[in-house]
Amino acid sequence: MSDKAIEAGEGFTADAFLQESQSDEEEEPSQPSSAGSTPGGPPSGPPSGPPKGPGSDSKDQPKDKKSNFASTAGKVGAAVLGGVVAVGAVPVVLGAIGFTSTGIAASSIAAKMMSSAAIANGGGVAAGSLVATLQSVGAAGLSLSSKILLGATGSSVGAWMWPSDKDKDKNENKDKDKDKDKDKK
Question: Where is this region: Disordered (predicted)?
């Protein structure tokens, strides 16, 4: 478009578009608002009254915020502990069975494993075998990816082992039932 056409007002401008859209809105007849319902039909707005469905029952809600926080904090703590133990236990366990940083310890489980592997392979331990891998980890430690994998697995196991609120409620109910049974006798 040329400068002359723009100066003459022949070009498209945002002001003209806004004016048109505002005039279109003014021309539309207003519709009565009935809160989204039609006469004789079911209401289409949000339901009134107490909510229904999963999670709306008062039994599903935590008794207080402290118990919910304590449960979450306990689960997180168990997950962290599980990850730390999983990663930290590997060098300790490998050292205990004989895969040390200086090599395989004499008269250890590792030495017996190495002897069996060598006999099975005709005199040598095959590269990539279980004995070779464990000796590598015992000597050099875990790689970063192995630490991440073990940490994630340990965290999952630790969090899984922490009792949930539902488990605690079941145990409390069992204890109450046992107390009632003792009172009846």
Answer: 1-69, 157-185
